[in-house]
Design a protein that fits this description.
Blueprint: H1 3-16, E1 28-29, E2 43-53, E3 73-89, H2 92-108, H3 110-118, E4 125-127, E5 131-150, E6 153-170
Parallel strand pairs: 1-2
Antiparallel strand pairs: 2-3, 3-6, 4-5, 5-6
Helix pairs in contact: 1-2, 1-3
Length: about 190
């Protein structure tokens, strides 16, 4: 639900931290690191985590044997999705400094990041023939920083939650009536 938000955050952090973390693939990532000993320090990774829908959809049931004619349907559900920013660095003071700058950069740019996500050019709007979905974010919140240590590599996992709503629509296809019957005979 928030992949585009993570792209916006990455762009923003790369500008804010250009003097702290080199702007190349050796120092930035969008997937969790399995072995922190094989990365170039300092390193910053953003990735989505747990997704929750606050009110599950109710199942619709019909008691009659005749199906009701299909009708357009729109449902809006509140959702929250966690995302993680992992930082790895050489010293505790460098790790603390960069973590502080990341948190400060995100929280002081909160409104502009949300506004940028919710604009039509990057907002998550998906559509098939009959189904369309639209994601809209209200806010994101910082929750905790959890230290990690793996093979003498210092890390800090910053946990955030994005809150928003998902609008889902199903349209009714045009009627499928027979226009004309043509008999084809073979000789």
């Amino acid at each position: 639900m928030i992949y585009h938000l993570l792209q916006v955050i990455t762009d923003n952090l790369q500008l804010d931290l250009k003097n702290e973390i080199p702007n190349d693939d050796d120092h930035w990532g969008l997937i969790p690191i399995i072995d922190p000993t094989k990365i170039t320090l300092p390193h910053l990774i953003l990735y989505p985590n747990k997704l929750q829908v606050n009110h599950p959809l109710q199942q619709l049931s019909h008691s009659s044997t005749q199906p009701d004619p299909p009708a357009p349907l729109t449902i809006t559900q509140e959702f929250q999705q966690d995302f993680v920013i992992e930082l790895y660095d050489k010293t505790p003071s460098d790790l603390e400094k960069r973590a502080s700058l990341v948190i400060g950069g995100l929280l002081t740019n909160h409104d502009s990041l949300i506004k940028r996500y919710n604009t039509t050019d990057i907002q998550a709007n998906y559509q098939t023939n009959q189904i369309s979905t639209r994601h809209h974010l209200r806010q994101f919140q910082f929750h905790a920083g959890i230290p990690t240590y793996a093979s003498n590599v210092l890390g800090l996992q910053l946990n955030f939650t994005a809150l928003g709503h998902l609008s889902m629509s199903r349209s009714v296809p045009d009627s499928q009536n027979i226009i004309q019957t043509i008999n084809i005979s073979t000789k």
